[in-house]
């Protein structure tokens, strides 16, 4: 059973949210994988992770790189990831999540219907699902499980 966190991006874009979530993942001693919808999105996220903050470095690579954070289009954790992050518009079968400790699904208001369908499918498959909402101050709060 995998812990699946749904992050509703109502006030922020993925490139604004992912760096801090990835930093928290690395602090746990975990490796991470970010599945993106296209090669263009992967290149944009690569750029965002290099430039999101002047005083920080987030070690990452693209596709088959053996880095703590891997940006990819695939389901297979080539870097031995413990956590997978799915960008808005990216799906993954419940069975494909089995090898991860945690799966984080980022979704926008326009993806709400797809996220609800995924929630139901993941819950019926036995995964623990949690919904996180962004507060007005930008912090994240657990809204439901």
Count of helices?
3
What separation lies between the terminal Cα atoms? 15 Å
The major pleated sheet works out as: 8 strands, mixed
What best-fitting shape do the alpha-carbon axes yield? globular
In terms of DSSP E residues, the strand content is 25-35%
Order of helices and strands: EHEHEEEEHEE
pLDDT averaged over residues: 91
Low-confidence stretches: none
Task: Count the E strands.
Answer: 8
Residue share in helices? 25-40%
- Secondary structure class reads alpha/beta
**Over all CA atoms, what is the radius of gyration?**
14 Å
Q: What assembly state would you assign to the polypeptide chains in this entry? A: single chain
Output the strand order for the largest sheet. Answer: 3-4-2-5-6-1-7-8
Fold and architecture overview:
With 145 residues, the chain is an alpha/beta fold. The chain has helices at 14-27, 39-51, 112-124, and strands at 3-8, 32-35, 60-62, 69-72, 83-86, 102-107, 128-134, 140-144. Strand 7 (128-134) and strand 8 (140-144) form a beta hairpin. Helix 1 (14-27) crosses helix 2. The radius of gyration is 14 Å and the shape is globular. The mean pLDDT is 91.
Task: Please sum up the structure shown.
The protein has 3 helices and 8 strands; from the N terminus they run E-H-E-H-E-E-E-E-H-E-E.
């Amino acid at each position: 059973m995998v812990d699946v966190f749904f992050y509703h991006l109502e006030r922020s874009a993925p490139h604004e949210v992912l760096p801090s979530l990835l930093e928290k993942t690395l602090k746990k001693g975990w490796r991470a994988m970010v599945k993106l919808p296209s090669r263009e999105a992967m290149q944009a996220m690569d750029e965002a992770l290099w430039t999101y903050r002047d005083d920080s470095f987030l070690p990452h690579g693209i596709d088959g790189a053996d880095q703590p954070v891997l940006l990819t289009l695939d389901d297979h954790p080539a870097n031995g990831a413990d956590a997978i992050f799915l960008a808005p518009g990216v799906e993954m079968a419940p069975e494909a999540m089995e090898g991860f400790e945690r799966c984080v699904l980022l979704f926008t208001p326009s993806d709400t219907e797809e996220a609800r369908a995924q929630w139901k499918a993941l819950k019926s498959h036995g995964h623990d699902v949690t919904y996180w909402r962004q507060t007005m101050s930008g912090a994240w709060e657990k809204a439901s499980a």
